[in-house]
Design brief:
about 500 residues; alpha/beta; Rossmann fold; 3 domains; 6-stranded mixed beta sheet; globular
């Protein structure tokens, strides 16, 4: 390797799938002790590039160079053996095994043919200590909080001697305190000379943790910025989407009608005191709160996913009994869940199947047979209406970007008699361009008279999108703010426990 050559280089990487050119001639490098951001809209090619780096995909053309040597990995094991680890959003850990066992999985220390538990434990303690993590090596990984599981994943990579570590949306489900702890670990890895590739849609994080950034668009490298000094978020957004999205929300007030949803005294698991709220036809109600505030729990109660213990619900003035999601769907109340991959879509089914799942019974002869003509027609109409980017209706949903998966879920509900739309973290893991498209869809649905609730931990999103905001804290509705009066400071004061203590005093 030449002295000035970066340790990690992508050299002319291209990747094609049937009907799709995912990457075209992508080249850039990352040197020792550098944190390099990789950004772009959903579908820009970031995930494909990471999968080539990890050995999940082999490139159609081009190579990965490590320390001056060309490498083509055919499996994650090959990549890991070469010192490359990718920390994905969906962590690759064995939940029923202990922390120590996960760290040494595949190379458990043994003595006389039996696992040496003493050495297993000491190895784990030593590696965790390097990350500043005080964890019981004998704890089952599946019972740990997400942030600690992520640390186990990083420790596992280091145990296997990883020099190159790529992070894929590592902060999407972490609290602000957990994010700062992760950043401290990344800075330490950087100081130790590791090569860090960092993928995130949260552009504000780049300025805290990254040294440089490469922008991908439509599978091609647009630009590599060697220093973020003097670079603004708007500049990066413009490079990503090829257009100016300075006002990504484009909020405009709209007339509100009669109540679309009335909730009175709703109680159940996750809600500390009975909740009462109203959403008008044409209104977008924001639901903000910090991690653990109860936003998701409240939406699941309204949707009937969790049985309520008390309370009354009306939809468009009509009382409804929500004992299960099917009751909510019949009443026109639909939920786009927080974890769309696990609860929102069936990833191994096609786009057409996913978006027709809920409405197909009302269009099936005798309720038993699939109406292929209607399903094809409806799928085509919804794909066009929501601009879902897919090579065909038969494409498996797992191959779509996060933004397009979210659109498929919306299309499913729009295929039925939708009256109230519940959106839980609708733009998590979605790039700024796709966010703008989703916001436009939400505005359009509200303008058509739907009642919309948007629950989000992204405060600027709630402030920019909602007509009115309910702030939750510790399973309670702590206060209400209109769009005109709401500020970040006011919302955070309502969301933070310190505010409750201040009021009590």
């Amino acid at each position: 390797m030449q002295q000035d050559e970066p340790y990690l280089q992508f050299a002319g990487i291209s990747k094609s799938f049937p009907g799709v050119q995912a990457l075209t001639d992508v080249s850039f490098g990352v040197g020792d002790g550098r944190v390099h951001a990789l950004i772009g809209e959903n579908g820009a090619g970031k995930s494909t590039l990471l999968k080539i780096l990890s050995g999940a995909y082999t490139p159609t053309a081009g190579t990965v160079r490590l320390g001056g040597a060309d490498r083509v990995f055919h499996s994650a094991a090959e990549a890991l053996a070469a010192g490359v680890a990718v920390i994905y959003q969906e962590l690759h850990l064995a939940p029923e095994m202990t922390v120590a066992e996960n760290l040494s999985l595949g190379h458990l220390p043994s003595r006389f043919g039996v696992v040496d538990k003493r050495r297993l434990r000491s190895n784990a303690l030593r590696q965790l200590a390097l990350l500043g993590e005080d964890l019981d090596p004998n704890a089952k990984v599946g019972r740990l909080p997400l942030a600690q599981r992520q640390m186990v994943e990083i420790a596992k990579a280091l145990t296997r001697g990883a020099k190159v570590i790529a992070f894929d949306e590592p902060t999407s489900s972490l609290s602000s305190r957990e994010v700062q702890k992760l950043f401290a670990v990344i800075r330490d890895l950087k100081a130790r000379g590791h090569v860090i590739l960092y993928v995130s849609h949260r552009l504000e994080e780049l300025f805290q943790i990254c040294d440089e950034v490469t922008v991908l668009r439509d599978g091609m490298r647009v630009e590599t910025v060697d220093s973020l000094e003097g670079v603004t978020r708007d500049v990066l957004v413009n490079r990503m989407v090829g257009r100016d999205l300075r006002n990504v929300y484009n909020y405009a007030p709209r007339p509100h009608g009669a109540p679309a949803l009335d909730v009175v005294g709703l109680a159940g698991p996750g809600v500390a005191e009975p909740a009462t709220l109203t959403v008008a036809q044409g209104e977008i109600l924001g639901l903000f709160g910090l991690v653990g505030a109860g936003r998701t729990e409240l939406l699941r109660l309204i949707f009937g996913a969790v049985p309520m213990t008390a309370g009354a619900v009306k939809v468009w003035g009509r009382p409804v009994h929500l004992r299960a999601p099917r009751d909510a769907i019949r009443a026109g109340v639909m939920l786009c869940p927080e974890d769309r991959k696990k609860e929102g879509v069936i990833p191994i089914r096609s786009v057409q199947e996913n978006l027709n799942l809920s409405a197909r019974r009302t269009h099936s002869p005798l309720g038993f047979f699939i109406n292929e003509r209607w399903e094809r027609s409806n799928a085509n109409a919804q794909v066009d209406k929501l601009a879902i980017r897919t090579p065909s209706l038969q494409q498996l949903v797992l191959h779509l970007s996060g933004g397009n998966q979210q659109k498929v879920i919306l299309a499913r509900w729009l295929s039925g008699a939708l009256k109230v739309l519940l959106l839980d973290e609708p733009t998590r893991g979605i790039d700024v361009g796709a966010k703008s498209e989703l916001y436009s869809i939400i505005y359009t649905l509200a303008s058509q008279g739907l009642g919309v609730i948007v629950a989000s931990s992204d405060l600027p999103e709630v402030l920019g999108l909602a007509d009115r905001i309910l702030v939750m804290r510790d399973g309670r509705i702590a206060g209400s703010l209109t769009h005109e009066e709401a500020t970040e400071e006011q919302a955070l004061r309502l969301a933070l426990p310190e505010f409750a203590l201040e009021n009590a005093a």
